[in-house]
What we know:
The complex is a heterotrimer. Chain A is an alpha+beta fold. Chain A has helices at about 20-30, 35-40, 105-110, 155-165, 175-180, 180-185, 205-215; strands at about 5-10, 50-55, 60-70, 85-90, 95, 120, 145, 190-195, 220, 230-235.
Amino acid sequence: MAEESWGMVVDLDKCTGCQACVVACQSENNIPINDEDLFNQRRPIQWIRIERYWEGEFPNVKARFIPIMCQHCGDAPCEPVCPVFATYHNFEGLNVQVYNRCIGTRFCANNCPYQIRFFNFWEPEWPESLKNQLNPDVTVRSRGIMEKCTFCIQRIRRTGQDADRNGGDPTSAEYERSLNPACVNACPTETLAFGDFNNPDSKASKMRDKDSVEEGRAYSLLEEFGTNPSVVYLKKVDELAEEVVHG
Amino acid sequence: MQDHIQIDHKDINRDLLSGVLGTPSWWLGAVVFLTLVFLAGIGAFGYMLNKGIGVTGLNRPIMWGFFMTNFVFWIGISHAGIMISAILRLTQAEWRRPITRAAEVMTVFSLMAALMAAPLVHVGRPWRAALWVFPYDFARGVWPNIRSPFIWDPSAVMTYLTASSLFVFVALLPDLAVIRDRATGKWAPKIYSALCMGWRGTPRQWKLQALAGILLSALVLPVFVSVHSIVSWDFAVNIGVEGWHSTIFAPYFIIGAIHSGVSAVAMLMAVMVWLWKLDKYIRPDHFDAIGRLLIVVATTWFFFFFLEWVFALYTLEGPELALRELQVFQWPYIFLFILFLMTAYFIPVPLWLFKKVRRSIPLMFFTTVLVNVGMWLERFLIIIPGMARKTPLTFDWGTYHPSLVEILMVASTFAWVALGMLLFSKVFPLIPIFDIKEGMVFRDEVKIGRRTIPASIRE
Amino acid sequence: MASESAAQPGKLALDTPVGVIRDLLGKYQKTGDAYWRAVALFGVLFALGIIGFIMRLSDGVSDKAVWGYYAAMFAFILTTAQAAPMVAIATRLTKAHWRRPISRAAELWTIVGLFNLILFIPLLWVLPSLEDGRRSLWFFGNVDDIPIYSPHIWATLALVFLVIAGLMMLWVSCLPDLATIRDNSSGWRQRWAKRLAFQWRGTSAQWNMQHHRLGILGAFYFMMLVFVHFLISVDFLMALVPGWIDALFPATHAANALQAGAATMLLTLFFLRQFGGYKDYITLDQMWLLGKILFALSLLWFWFWFSSFIILWYGKRPNEQAVLELLMIGPYLPVFMAAFILNFLVPLFTMIWNPLRKSLWGPPLIATSVIIGTFFDRIRLYVATYTVPGIGDPAVDKHGALAMDAITKANLPDLADIFIIVGVIGGSILVFLLATRIIPSVSIWEQRELLLYKVHKPFHRTEVMVLGKRD
């Protein structure tokens, strides 16, 4: 498992904004329940979120959806600023958050230009019945700690252990649904693809290369920041849209 | 120094020790009031410890608020001490004599207030921070991240606190001996004796004390520059927040610190004249001198403020323009911005251009209070709007409303500094006795034609 | 401070006003062989510079890359000679007495400012207009709304006002001395002094106005100096590199000037003392105190540099990394290291050593290091920036970032550049030397004023000097 460089491809042409990925992520990763109060306080925790932008004037208004999760940047700006090394870059190209070390200075959240880092302002609480639903593979965080998308590292690890036990390549199609993060599995339109960018034959690599070479749709968010993200977005195809020149 | 009064050494001792050997009538009431405010802040902190950071107004994306603003503000005030004592001592300005100790002590208490305002208090898990940082948890062989500005911060601030405390102590030694010789009671003479470390006033001791003062003054100047540079880099190294990533932050913050710090010292001078009746020692001349210094400092500050704005707009980038638009034109920031500009520069400085204003103690007090209100707002306006318009992803823009918990905790830091000064004044003299006596001894006059001008004896 | 030279028979003691006047006038009126030899030497260097300039002109003004060294030399004189008067202005503000012997020498450097203004003129043709779409200080509206030569106009105006302020300050400062010369000499000096002295009679009203005017002109010079550095460092330097956004840079440029100005003064004082015969006036006090100022300013050089560097380095933004590559760690690394060592490391590690700092030769030696360091610093900044491709070409996008592969190799000086370098330095020193023939290098009236403030009095069992400080 030492030579992978995990990455994700998001095909914006397919995203319908249904938020199935958000729900899946919440169940998989023991994310606290975001009730209406929390949204009004502007403190909901959504490791993957759907951003919705309105374009155009009535009656030609269009809603544009873009799912944003931790970009696992190669040059992550959140990493150098943590005083206690609670976030660092591991050998698989993931930006890792160590909950136990975190003292909650929130410096990393400030330096992330994608705003994908979340802070537990309150102690998370689950009703009794929902406690059985918590995923035993994922730490339940207390208040005062930063958290964010991990590319479901628990699934990567479990798949790796399964592959070691049962034989086979964890990045092959056989283990695909086991390896994929919850959001990738839940998406009904196959917007998201996850894989090893170091392996040119992986599904994610193929999606990225095809669209950067042939159709030229591939881009990264906020490239001018130089963060070198591991998430590649594919532009939405809309023949009716006017050419927009971004300054 | 035109309105100099030559005072006899006996009278100097009596006047300046009046606060130590006796108690002013208002003192106890003030201490009780300030302690109550301070305890209210402690209570608010306890509530926050119990419930979580959620009781504040912080949210996503505005992850730092009043606590950070307050932290930077108190670091700023702490720069007064060194400015007044070290720099004015090295340039041999006579008018520094009555105010050096008060300024240095304010520095020490401000630094403690700064440490109270943010580092251990605003983090998500202060109990973990306290247990792991003092002493540091090396159990897994992981050291502190030296690349993080939050490691540079405590190093710089603790160095400054140590140096300032040493400074205060070295300058206190001769005065401690004066009190030792006059204190009554069972414990007081013993304690002062131990503290003054056997000071007898021999020529060798005076020489060593002067040398220590000069060395500390020179060595603390790099610390003085580096502390606030490092605090400013808490913000400036961030690429994530709009309006923070500017190279000008280091000198901008330092000159801002000098501006608010020297204003705080002027405020302190007025308070000392009114409450302790020290008008024979702190004369209108001193206010005149500090007012002229303030004009230069304030104008330099304004130049750096102007530079910051020019280069923010120089980029003509969308996110930066959105931030500036929020800061200047949108409510409530429009009100805060105008208030800040008026109080930090456009009301005080034109007033200070007039000698009558500079020599008037109530007007100096009023204008310097305005300056500090403005400078607190300046820190707020640098920190919060940037986070509100953080990234080009407009979906994540936000707003901030401070909560009662934050207001109480900020108020308690002000109470702490005032309380510290009052308690200090009861135990040690606020005006350095030996410094005043030295000024009297070295003072002389030179006749030029029909005029006599003040002079001092130079070896 | 004037010392008693009662040891020399036939010479009036220097602690009397008449003694001071005779002594200083004598030095001013005599010019020895060494002076003429120096004038000849620097005249030759200046002539070489003119040759180099003509060679450079033959390349035309459209390609600004070849004018990098010329721009660097203009900036070098702006940083050294035009900042030297700040030593007089700042010390006058603090009313220190030790500055009296050196203030005139500092003010004399304003004449070299006039020379620098003439040097500036060709650069107005070299700098492209704003039509190429680059960032600039004149950012309101889009390019069609602003005059495309705004940088040129504003920089020229600012530089002209700076030079005028400097010359006026010099003239006001000289008035009492010109009157002294008018009353005590003959020949061409007497005629010129009479015209320039402008009815100076030495009344109290005139003396009051004197101090007043000098204060205001000094403050104005300082403001104009900062403004000129602001305009030159942004529109003639920073705007030429896409993606170089350094809010501190105008202040850094100005702070470098203050350091180099102090260094220029130290070196000037050394030569005045050695060859001008001003040993009684320029003493250890001047060297020591100005040396301490140079030390502090060298520390500040580092702080300004580091404040910029840490921000640009830490963020890892591509545009900032490219700027660091261009100006510091890329092709100009040796030049940058030289500047860093000479401007900061040498002063830091030598000036902390007391025997060097408190000596007559130590501070001028370190000042030489600083001046050479400043020279390398300006070269690295201007030569590197002027080689950036695309600026001047309206088709290229200037608002993005400098691409790493667009960083050209180091531009080494050719023969014309070397001639220009020696010519500018030679010309500046030549102008200064010629100025000292017309204007005395040590201010006579300030030295006489000092005698009024200084009194020797008995104090307990000894005698001390009492120094008055005007309010």
